[in-house]
């Protein structure tokens, strides 16, 4: 078989050279890239001046040796499994799906943008995390939407980020966020590094109160050493126990259709310790974990009583559930619609693997034993990507169990 002719497609921010068989795919890559750049500059609040003279020379390659023979891969480019960026040049291996090829082109493009606008992309977690954050997309061409979470596995063949995260969760090897932020420099990224760095970047981009720290960090891209993280920590030091706790929840829940509008966790280190008096609380069915705004002291027993009905879908007919849940479907091993609780300790380990989250069934009533100072969270059991069609609340009472 002869190597395909190289095709060149010229865009505004990219000049693509490729041996992809499909000219349509090559055109769509260029249109996607140009549309993505506008979204990235607005994400980082960059003026159009800052990218006026930036144009990426991109090689998207099926047959790498063909490009090498043409002198299009300089000697300083290391061997890489997926892609590589150097100043305003990027090299990307074409993947078995158009989605994943596009993702990798965008990923390397984000690195190139960081080199151009910020003189560097920061330490590994920040460099790979922001590249993944800005590259993860839905749609393509002019309709591409970056900085989003795919809703459907079938839309993103070979991308595999949530598959990897699921594996990490199943293995019980979810690291603390500090471990992710300490990833050493790598030349050839592995999917786990990409995935967890993406999750960390998503956390800091997903909460408005971290946004300023995240944005000012990108300005320090030149610094890939320990000073970068030290500054990052110091800006958030007062709230770090919340960052760590939110990371633990995110690492547990991040999945297809995850929507920050539904999943931001409202907790505080100044939430008062529960005094044992009854509290009433409504648990919404259309959002993720919810806290009644208290912390539970170590050694306390908490009795929960719950009533109410929620609607979890309308098709083919309304699916109504009460706190025990309905056994027509299971999510995370528990009946759909079940009222569940999570005891989230105020202290999160900073080393080793994070212990699995303590999630338990509440149903109509139950008693929860709390070992260490913790937040007590509730939600209606459903897939994170399937909350949009939920309605209604469970009404619960938190009280001291009879002695
Ligand atoms: Zn990268």
TrEMBL record:
Protein name, per record: DUF1570 domain-containing protein
Naturally occurring in which organism (per UniProt): Rubripirellula tenax
Taxonomic lineage from the root: Bacteria, Pseudomonadati, Planctomycetota, Planctomycetia, Pirellulales
């Amino acid at each position: 078989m002869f190597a395909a002719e190289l095709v060149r497609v010229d865009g505004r921010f990219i000049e693509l050279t490729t041996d992809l068989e499909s000219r349509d795919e090559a055109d769509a890559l260029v249109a996607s890239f140009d549309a993505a750049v506008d979204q990235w500059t607005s994400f980082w609040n960059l003026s159009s001046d800052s990218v006026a003279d930036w144009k990426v020379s991109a090689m998207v390659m099926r047959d790498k040796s063909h490009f090498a023979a043409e002198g299009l891969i300089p000697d300083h480019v290391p061997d890489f499994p997926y892609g590589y960026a150097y100043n305003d040049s990027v090299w990307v291996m074409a993947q078995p799906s158009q989605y994943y090829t596009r993702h990798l082109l965008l990923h390397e493009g984000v690195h190139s943008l960081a080199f151009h606008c910020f003189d560097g992309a920061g330490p590994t977690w920040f460099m790979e995390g922001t590249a993944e954050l800005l590259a993860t997309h839905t749609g393509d061409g002019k309709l591409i939407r970056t900085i989003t979470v795919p809703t459907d596995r079938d839309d993103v063949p070979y991308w595999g980020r949530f598959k990897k995260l699921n594996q990490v969760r199943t293995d019980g090897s979810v690291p603390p966020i500090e471990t992710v932020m300490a990833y050493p420099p790598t030349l050839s990224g592995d999917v786990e590094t990409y995935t967890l760095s993406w999750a960390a970047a998503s956390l800091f981009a997903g909460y408005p109160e971290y946004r300023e720290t995240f944005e000012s960090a990108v300005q320090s891209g030149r610094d890939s050493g320990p000073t970068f993280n030290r500054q990052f920590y110091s800006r958030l030091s007062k709230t770090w126990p919340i960052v760590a706790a939110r990371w633990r929840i995110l690492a547990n829940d991040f999945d297809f259709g995850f929507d920050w509008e539904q999943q931001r966790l409202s907790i505080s280190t100044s939430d008062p310790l529960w005094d044992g008096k009854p509290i009433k609380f409504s648990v919404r069915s259309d959002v993720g974990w919810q806290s009644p705004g208290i912390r539970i002291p170590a050694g306390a027993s908490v009795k929960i009583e719950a009533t109410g009905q929620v609607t979890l879908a309308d098709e083919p007919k309304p699916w109504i559930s009460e706190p025990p849940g309905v056994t027509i479907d299971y999510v995370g091993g528990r009946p759909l619609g079940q009222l569940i609780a999570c005891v989230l300790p105020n202290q999160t380990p900073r080393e080793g693997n994070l212990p699995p989250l303590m999630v338990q069934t509440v149903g109509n009533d139950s008693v929860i034993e709390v070992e260490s100072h913790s937040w007590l969270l509730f939600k209606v059991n459903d897939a994170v990507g399937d909350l949009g069609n939920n309605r209604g609340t469970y009404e619960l009472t938190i009280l001291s169990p009879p002695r």
